[in-house]
Amino acid sequence: MKTIEFIQINKENLDDQGCYCLRSKPNSTGYTNKNEWLIGQFHEGLKYIKIMEDNKHAGFIEYTPIEHSSRVVYGENYLVIHCLWVNITGKGYASKLIQTCIQEAREQRKDGVIVVTNPDTSWTPSKEIFIKNNFIEVDTAPYGFELLVHKFGHSPNPYFPTDWENRLKPFTNLTIIRTQQCPFVDIATENIIKGANRLGIQADIIDIQSREELMRLSPTPYGIYGVIFKKTFITFHRLTVHSALKRLKELI
Q: What's one Pfam family the UniProt record gives for this protein (predicted)?
């Protein structure tokens, strides 16, 4: 009989439990930045829950109230799922984690739960598992982004901004817009900078400090990481140094 345990990470047990991603490199800058970011977000209502099978990591979910979310979506009185990842599949763990979030949304008298998906990358959760848990798609955005919601009543649907092209226009220089919500952001940033350095390109980094700034500047709904060069969108996820170099060369 497998032993299944849900562990909610908080300020008191973070050092002992650690977060799920990049846990094999607890001294890395990305992992350290993520933990510091979590400490700042716990008092804003963020929940980070791991599921363990026989004391082994099976998966996790991270979600937070929309007013503190790192996803670029408009709406009121929703919880937003940032991340969902399960590495022990076929046992319903993803659905268990999603249902945990839905139940908490009901207890908090929210209007529902939101998630942003994208079929072109593993940096966002898969759409299909949310459809299975009675989410519906209500909006789309450039670069393959989809907005799904599980609503409890007839409240207004959440929605994406529509000014994505205009957001690119101020950025002629190579610009990285980021938060520390994902521990892989540091690696993604390093790879872009290494590629840019080989071409003699200087990178500007904007570390997002507020929800307002995020909603105004982010070039995609993903929110936590975006790269722009010569008013052109480059990526919202990690590229290899080679891929970054190739993409930048195309715009020189």
A: Acetyltransf_1
| 37-76: pLDDT as tens digits | 999 999 999 999 999 999 899 999 999 999 999 999 999 9
Q: Position 12: which residue type?
A: E
In a domain, 80, yes or no: yes
CB 86 within 8 A of CB 50: no
Walk across the sheet containing 4-9 and list its strands.
4-9, 47-53, 56-65, 78-86, 112-117, 145-151, 136-141
Q: Which domain holds residue 50?
A: 4-109
- Compute the distance between CA of residue 61 and CA of residue 81 in angstroms, rounded to an integer: 7
Where b means 16+ CB within 10 Å and e means fewer, 218-249 reads bbbbbbbbbbbbeeebbbbbbbebeebbebbe
Asked if 173 and 224 count as a contact pair (C-beta separation under 8 A), the reply is no
Rounded CA gap, 227 and 167, in Å? 12
Q: Yes or no: say if 37 and 180 are a contact pair by the CB < 8 Å rule.
A: yes
Q: Cα 91 from chain centroid?
A: 24
Rounded Cα–Cα distance for residues 83 and 236 (Å): 15
* 105 in the same domain as 8: yes
Q: Alpha-carbon distance 72 to 88, whole Å?
A: 30
